Amino acid sequence: MPVSGPYNSQNSQNSQNSQNSQNSQNSQNSQNSQASENSQAGPDNTFSSAALGTARDGTVGYWDGSADRTPKQDGRSGWDALRAMATGPRRGLMDACLHGMFGVTLEARAKDKPATGTVALNGATLVTLEAPTSAFLADEQLPYLRTYADLRGDRLNEIIMQTGDIQSFFGLVGYMSPDATKWSLALNQAMLRLCTMIEMPLKHGFDVARPIAMSRKVQPMIQTPGHGAWPSGHATEAFACATLLSRLFLNASVDPVEQIKAGNELYRHAERIAMNRTVAGVHFPTDSMAGAVLGVTVAEALINLLDGAPQTRTRVFHGSVYDGDFSLGRMVQALATQTEIKTGTLSLTPGMVPGWLAKMWDEAKDEW
């Protein structure tokens, strides 16, 4: 069950907690309640509707059906229209916009080629992931689970909380509240939902086995999700949030790779969230590396679009042959070698960001 806090109080609308995914973090800190945010006094019910109806009958008097006011909707901007939306419809609009920018394709494993998943931005390849086989994981990754299990006693509370909430951990680094940082929260929640839209087709298509499928001695401390392990959803979302929030908290253009090298606090939390999934026994280190590459690259691309940058970085993760552990230091090493994570560039198409989203981005930056 998700743990609510001052930063999140996730509702169940998007909850995938039965799958141990923190994608339920879409409430923007209790803004989802239409009873408190979007009505005159309280939720509709038969009694209040009847009372309002009789009050109208007793005060309106005769009405010939003619108009006596001018709608303020006439000629207003997309941003003003969005600000008038309730939380649910606003999320729907944001998701339709962001999800329409990205697409996922998969190619099955062939004799001389690993299973490959591609994430595209506006039709151009942004991220390429090459998945490992079960035999490779059993030989090269399963031994990590034995040593990680030694940390279970220390990490138990974090692991349980993170099955339904990662946003609160980033809230330790920068003050976040639905009143003071409304648009930062809205964008961060949208990022989490975008990650879900991208990662789940990859998980389904790759269908990479979980550690419990390879040894009865793993015995995870939480329920193992039924969907595929690779890439890790927690790592994807944690590193995407760390990238987005680094840009906002620092209120300046940042290089995610340099921030990872420096070990800024947001990325250290992302690292720990990802590693906790291996401690719990439900992920291999390679799952987290794949998710970290995916999350950073997608978030970096979105930030560059919002900032009006001319290009963004692309990445290829050769996960089919990656036998290493996961940490920020190991990620920096992999990024530097170009043999485990290959980096390129992609030109961005002008005009992809609608005016209302550009205005939201400006408002979010001004919150810091």
Give the CATH topology: Vanadium-containing Chloroperoxidase, domain 1
Number of domains: 1
The CATH class name reads Mainly Alpha
Supply the helix-strand structural class: alpha+beta
The CATH superfamily appears as Phosphatidic acid phosphatase type 2/haloperoxidase
Q: List the secondary-structure elements in sequence, H or E.
A: HHHHEEEHHHHHHHHHEHEH
- Provide the helix percentage: 40-55%
Mean pLDDT: 89
Describe the structure.
With 368 residues, this protein is an alpha+beta fold. It has one domain (17-34, 79-366): Vanadium-containing Chloroperoxidase, domain 1 (Up-down Bundle). It is built from 15 helices and five strands. α10 packs antiparallel against α12 and α10 (233-250) runs parallel beside α13 (285-307). The longest helix has 25 residues, at 182-206. The radius of gyration is 23 Å and the shape is globular. The model is unreliable at 1-40 (pLDDT under 50).
